[in-house]
Fold this protein.
Amino acid sequence: MHTRDLAHWQHDHVFDQDEVKPGERHTLLVVAITAVMMVVEVTAGIAYGSMALLADGLHMASHATALGISLFAYIYARRLAADRRFSFGTGKVNSLAGFGSAVLLAGFAFAMASESTVRLVNPVAIAFDQALIVAVLGLLVNALSAWLLAATPHQKARGHTHAHHHDHNLRAAYLHVLADALTSLLAIIALLAGKYFGANWLDPVMGIVGAILVARWSLGLLRQTAHTLLDHQADDTTTEGLRQAIEGKATDRVADLHVWSIGSRIYAAALTIISESPRSPDYYRARIPPGLHIAHATMEIHQCPRH
């Protein structure tokens, strides 16, 4: 058999990872916006003595770093999409970046709660008017950034629409700016309460509340990305949909089935098929519904003796 005869059975493992994803462009814009606002809020928080504002600025600093990681992941995954060292393409690079971002979120939530606790015990003077101006500006910037990421068009791959919430990298970036918007909002509430009702203690308390909410988001993202990175079995809808498509009403039966994520809403599958009248792998592949997003399927086919 000549090498050229193998071409019919060979295929690449890029799975459209070499294309510029919609999230990459929006993430780049948000990185620039976040970096500028980070400098403004940190400077203002120190100058005006607001822990909530300083926490928001420091929060933005960590998020600027995390967003930078997200942007790097998009570029890295795209440029190395055809690298043969990656068995199933570079789809998991984005999930790895999302996991790293979630760790940063958890770390900052802890630092935010610790510093707020210190300020609750040892309060400092706050310049309310100046701090409020910066906090409102921060909220507007964060809201704009969150809108940009939430409005990212759905990614299309291999002719099928993929919901962008399956892009862990994009979701991580969105959670970071959403957390920023939350801390900005809490800072405004705390500053208003301190200015008009003398409740200065509310400023560090809001820092603690924000830390708890951010920690919850972080844990959720850690769980989602870990499932992808550890080749967690796909959900029942996908696995059972594949099983039913292969088995149908014939004598074909699926004896062993593994389906796992290799990228943003892209799955690989390995299955063992037992049949009294086995067919070719192409026959079974043709029975896989496009909506299951199985980009790579490896099949082991055995003939079962008739009883």
